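Final report, Chapter 2: Outcomes

The project's central promise was a pipeline that accepts a single protein chain and returns its three-dimensional structure in a standardized token representation, suitable for archiving and comparison. That pipeline is now operational. To close this chapter, we reproduce one record exactly as it appears in the project archive, with the input sequence first and the structure output second.
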Amino acid sequence: MTGQILSPDELEAALRAIGAERYHNLHPFHRALHDGRLTQGQVQAWALNRYYYQCRIPAKDASLLARLPTAELRREWRRRLVDHDGDAPGTGGVARWLKLTDGLGLDRAYVESLEGLLPATKFAVDAYVEFVRDRSILAAIASSLTELFSPTIISERVSGMLRHYDFVNRETLAYFHPRLTQAPRDSDFALSYVREHARTAEQQEAVLGALKFKCGVLWSMLDALDYAYVTPGRIPPGAFRPTFP
């Protein structure tokens, strides 16, 4: 941008263009995951590292919830905490992700301990949590707009993994089904908020920058997985080492 103020429709088009160029469905590691070109050990590494992202999302959302100025906004954002943490033990997205790691043959206590994370995974996810905590409410909400693009990647992931991997089934992938409705609901709200409140050139630049940042977080997590687990001999000390070939 060069300081011009975009209309809401132009701003939305610019946001969608960022997703079309930068969303992590384009990453080679993700293409390999969906196309059945990963080993079970590599899929385990993906699920284990992605768990850290999943389990930190509620903390990210709680930090934003505490800053929202109205009950209406807080009620809207509070739904995200329930989606991920559930409203009872064993419910919610984090619990369903653990069913995925269980189904892939990972020890649950090991997954929850976070001992096997790649260093880059922790750095990337922590940077996202800190971004939402420290930036403006508008930028924090805009950073969630990767959800605009998630239904497509979820559909590809579920169909591709069921087709190509005999070590997964629909129960293993139960995390993803609710996200097909939750993500569009959440992104509709976030997009409406951004369209209404990003009125100045500076605000619009912050919104676009927030989405680019979030795409970069997701992309860098896959970069780390690709580097460590696709080319032999690059797993860093202390990180998960697959026992499956």
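Archive annotation: The first helix runs from residue 8 to 22.
This record, like all others produced under the grant, will remain available to the consortium after the project formally closes.
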